[in-house]
Automatic annotation (TrEMBL):
The protein, known as: Bile acid:sodium symporter family protein
Naturally occurring in which organism (per UniProt): Corynebacterium anserum
Cellular component, GO annotation: membrane
InterPro entries assigned: BilAc:Na_symport/Acr3, Bilac:Na_transpt, Na+/solute_symporter_sf
Subcellular location: Membrane
Superkingdom of source: Bacteria
Transmembrane segments: 24-44, 56-74, 86-108, 115-136, 142-167, 179-200, 206-227, 239-258
Length: 342
């Protein structure tokens, strides 16, 4: 869930800026490296990190505030101008990923806490890593930003409904508590960040370069204590959780792309939908699962915080190789006005 300077606001209309692309590459590769190293240290030496669990809600709020600060009102204009791909993308995300989580949990025989953590990962809104990956993958960046924003705003209502519907009898879900927690830690910070951006646009614009790194530190503040508090469990379930997260993520990429092509959307829009469906707000999932259930339930989200960035970089590499093989020029791929249908 990397919060980079919003590519939709800066992406060129005729050719890819090498400086912006280099910055995006750094964001995608540096973030998982930092989280991976920190998670390994927290696993080996959990005692210094475990007390940080008291601040997880605050860290999630900081992440969401940073997201809100990167948004502008024009980000939401696409809801009016191009509603169909947004509706399809958000519906696909909130259907494919939760159902995929249940299927993977049953396939691999995950215990109830790991299963609920994977379901939470599938039920939270999209992560803004997707915006950077869409940029690198020559997708429709403006559409990516809008999909992420819409799914985030809907999450306090939709996520508890999904969890109540699919969690099963083995794991109790308090829908009201979850909804209120999402309002406090997600909705209010995002809306607050957006208001601050509107009122103090010049100041926030000057601060945009530091927001990605503030978000990275906050995500570390969510993931590291989750790993520390579940270090013993990780010794026994680490490999199966990694496999579960990878399969779940792959389901999102494949079915997300197919759902867009079913409506005959263009390749950039299909790529964007694929990325949006597959890339979840892993830090949020980890933090909420640890808070509402147990440290073990937070493990899938913690693993996904690393893997979703790695898979995003791999996806961008693969589609760029495909474009190169086909001789596809990088012209309108990142332009906000990319046509929907091919």
């Amino acid at each position: 869930m990397m919060h980079s300077v919003n590519p939709a606001h800066t992406a060129p209309t005729t050719q890819t800026s090498s400086k912006e692309e280099r910055s995006a590459h750094i964001a995608v590769f540096t973030f998982p490296l930092f989280i991976l190293i920190g998670a390994v240290i927290a696993f080996l030496k959990p005692d210094p990190f475990a007390p940080l669990s008291e601040y997880i809600s605050m860290m999630i709020s900081i992440i969401m505030l940073c997201m809100g600060l990167t948004l502008t009102l024009p980000d939401f204009s696409l809801v009016i101008r191009r509603p169909l791909p947004i509706i399809i993308g958000v519906l696909a995300q909130f259907i494919i990923m939760p159902v995929g989580a249940v299927a993977v949990a049953k396939l691999l025989g995950l215990n109830p806490m790991l299963a609920i953590g994977l379901l939470m990962l599938g039920s939270v809104p999209g992560g803004t890593t997707s915006n950077v990956v869409a940029y690198l993958s020559r997708g429709d960046v403006a559409l990516s930003v809008t999909m992420t924003s819409v799914s985030t705003i809907l999450s306090p209502l939709v996520t508890p409904i999904i969890m109540l519907t699919l969690a099963g009898e083995e794991t109790p879900v308090n829908g009201a508590t979850m909804a209120w927690s999402l309002v406090q830690t997600v909705l209010l910070p995002v809306i607050g960040g957006l208001i601050i951006r509107v009122v103090f646009d010049r100041l926030v614009t000057a601060l945009l370069p530091i927001l990605p790194w503030l978000s990275v530190l906050a995500i570390g503040g969510v993931v590291f204590p989750a790993v520390a508090k579940s270090s013993e469990s990780l010794k026994h379930v680490g490999l199966i959780v990694i496999l579960a997260v990878i399969l779940h993520n792959l389901i999102g990429y494949v079915l997300g792309y197919l759902s867009a092509k079913l409506f005959k959307f263009s390749v950039p829009v299909a790529r964007t939908t694929s990325i949006e469906v597959a890339t979840q707000s892993a830090g949020l999932a980890s933090g909420m699962s640890g808070k509402l259930w147990s440290p073990e339930a937070a493990i899938p989200g913690a693993v996904a915080a690393v893997w979703h960035n790695i898979s995003g970089a791999l996806f961008a590499f693969i589609v760029r190789r495909i474009d190169a093989a086909k001789g596809t020029p990088a012209t309108k791929a990142n332009h906000p006005e990319t046509p929907i249908a091919s």
